Amino acid sequence: MADDSLTLVFGALADPTRRAILTRLASGEASVKELGAPLEISGPALTKHLKVLERAGLISRSRRAQQRPCRIEARGLAVADDWIAQYREMWEAQLDRLGEYLATITGKPQPLAEQPAPRPPVRTARVRSPAATTATGRSATPPETATAPRRPSTSRRRPHARKARTS
Fold it and tell me: Which of 14, 103, 117, 145 is most enclosed, with most CB atoms within 10 A?
């Protein structure tokens, strides 16, 4: 049964419209009309989204005269949180073991949590802004003052083979 509820929760969270509804409900109770106003979807479509969220246990709806106010239910996310916590513990343990292994290889302690992730090298391209071009479409900035380095061409030119004339 826990797997079924987990599937329902992740299925409900998979849709961006339903996540937007939950985001709105995180700030407080709202009527169906209030929830539908910023979403620009039809009433029946909104009702279907609310039913999915309700079936997953993420929201609850009550009846107040002709209104159906909705509120977020934190216990619905508890199933997903428990499942994620299991994997978080496993990955943290594996990363700790990796840090210990790296420390034995290099002789230096490797605190994985404190190291910044390596950044890929930044490649800049030459971009011409409309202000930097002349009426003919050519750059107003001479090439020697351009700030971005050019990448070398990767294509190789092949010499043209001459056809032998047969007379």
Answer: 103
Q: What is the pLDDT of residues 115-150, one digit of tens each?
A: 555 555 544 444 444 444 444 455 454 444 444 445
CA–CA distance, 61 with 92 (Å, rounded to integer): 38
Rounded to an integer, what is the distance from CA 55 to the centroid of its chain?
26
Q: Are 60 and 70 in contact (CB under 8 A)?
A: yes
Does the pTM exceed 0.70?
no
**What is the distance between the alpha carbons of residues 53 and 123, in angstroms, rounded to a whole number?**
44
Task: Kindly report the backbone phi and psi dihedral angles of residue 11, in degrees, each rounded to the nearest multiple of 5, phi listed first.
Answer: -65, -40
d(CA 99, CA 108): 10
What is the rounded distance in angstroms from the CA atom of residue 45 to the CA atom of residue 23? 18
**Could you give the CA distance from residue 135 to residue 41 in angstroms, rounded to a whole number?**
46
- How many other C-beta atoms lie within 10 A of the C-beta of residue 75? 9
